[in-house]
Design brief:
The protein is an alpha/beta fold. It has two domains: 201 residues, FAD/NAD(P)-binding domain (3-Layer(bba) Sandwich); 124 residues, 3-Layer(bba) Sandwich (FAD/NAD(P)-binding domain). 23% of the residues lie in helices and 27% in strands. It contains eight helices and 21 strands. The strands form six sheets. Strands 1, 2, 5, 6, 7, 8 and 20 form a seven-stranded mixed sheet that branches. It has a four-stranded parallel sheet with strand order 12-11-10-16. The longest helix has 19 residues. The protein is elongated and about 70 Å long. It starts with a strand and ends in a 5-residue tail after the last helix. The protein binds flavin-adenine dinucleotide. Flavin-adenine dinucleotide binds next to α1, α2, α5 and α7. It holds the Pfam family Pyr_redox_2.
């Protein structure tokens, strides 16, 4: 039996909003434990687009997903957050004294005065194409996310999908891969128009090939290495695309996972919150970022930051009832130590 660790606030999810919630809690002298199902912090920013520039973070005209997470980690560091990675929170139970007991699938148990859920789209996983033998190639020649484009230098890459990820990685990998072919079932792509135009230009210049309208049909290969991706058009004609790597970008499956079983009020797989406090339907449980919904909610990192600031204040009021919290600017209070 593992011992129960005690803390002020448990933050579920180490994406950008969870990390900023740690900072905001720290400024209010609340210590945090942070739990994430992935083996690294950063949520979507590091798992899905570590090397892509983000242009709408205030005061950063351009910052990559990976750099943003490094800065957020640095900003939260003075408050000594305890990270529990590679584990999913499976249980959340309110105790008689108003605190919460959480348990992960690895048996970690934590008691916290308040909880902030920053779980993004939930336990996220890729939408897999229904191809025979797919699993045997995963992690060696089939990938659902790109961590470093250098991993694909001089490789023959087939990208499948018609959204932002497919288009953006086609543009990025065109410089390093031996060949890039983009398979999509329609000539029209659902991505930023400017990126789509750039991709079509690369196709016209012979730097990549758009294989449209085609769908994935099968894989050829040996062991864990593919040698070709078989595609089919709507008349049933097939083509073998010689390839070392397949990147299927069919989006993420939104699976709230255990969070859906905690009795919190949901709306279309998102947690309903009071937008003035970020409190969910359970007193003492707050939520921020992509996982929440309220009227006119924007799924943007900058909105998640503001939500984290509000949630931290509301969590403080819950964890320290009767204790008045004076509003202070960081410029006047500095970054508090112990
Ligand atoms: C390709 C792409 C480009 C984007 N570009 C921009 C942009 O330019 N500007 C912008 O503002 N936004 C952008 N976004 C959106 C932005 O990344 C999200 O809004 C942001 O990541 C949400 O942060 P979050 O902290 O709420 O959740 P996430 O980043 O999704 O992190 C949530 C974390 O919670 C963990 N988790 C979930 N359930 C559990 C559980 N039960 N136990 C433990 N851990 C759990 C997950 O593993 C995950 O790490 C982009 C997204 C994508 C995919």
């Amino acid at each position: 039996m593992s011992e129960i660790q005690k803390t002020d606030v448990v933050v579920i999810g180490a994406g950008p909003t969870g990390l900023f919630a740690v900072f905001e809690c720290g400024m209010l002298k609340m210590q945090c434990h942070v739990i994430d199902a992935l083996d690294m912090i950063g949520g979507q920013c590091t798992a899905l687009y570590p090397e892509k520039p983000i242009y709408d973070i205030p005061a950063h005209p351009s910052i990559t997903g990976g750099e943003l997470i490094n800065k957020l980690e640095e900003q939260a560091a003075p408050f000594d957050p305890v990270y529990h990675l590679s584990q999913q929170v499976t249980k959340l139970e309110k105790q008689d004294d108003g605190s919460f007991e959480l348990e992960t699938n690895k048996g970690t148990k934590i008691n916290a005065k308040a909880v902030i859920i920053a779980a993004g789209v939930g336990a996220f996983g890729p939408n897999r194409p229904p191809l025979e033998g797919l699993l045997q190639y995963e992690g060696t020649s089939v990938f659902y996310m790109v961590r470093k484009r250098e991993d694909f230098r001089d490789k023959r890459v087939v990208i499948a999908g018609g959204g932002d990820s497919a288009v953006d990685w086609a543009l990025s990998l065109a410089d390093v891969a031996k060949s890039v072919q983009v398979v999509h079932r329609r000539p029209k792509f659902r991505a930023a128009p400017e990126s789509v135009s750039q991709m079509k230009q690369l196709d016209e210049d012979g730097k990549i090939e758009l294989v449209v309208p085609y769908q994935l049909e099968g894989l050829k290969g040996e062991g864990d290495q593919i040698s070709a991706v078989v595609v089919k058009d709507f008349d049933g004609n097939t083509r073998d695309l010689e390839a070392d790597i397949l990147l299927p970008f069919y989006g993420l499956s939104q699976n709230l996972g255990p969070i859906a079983d905690w009795g919190l009020e949901l709306e279309k797989k998102h947690l309903n919150v009071d937008p003035t406090t970020m409190q969910t339907s359970e007193e003492g449980v707050f939520a921020v970022g992509d996982i929440i919904t309220y009227q006119n909610k924007l799924k943007l990192i900058l909105c998640g930051f503001s939500e984290a600031a509000m949630a931290a204040r509301a969590a403080h009021a819950y964890a320290h009832p009767g204790e008045e919290l004076h509003f202070e600017y960081s410029t006047s209070m500095g970054v508090p130590s112990e």
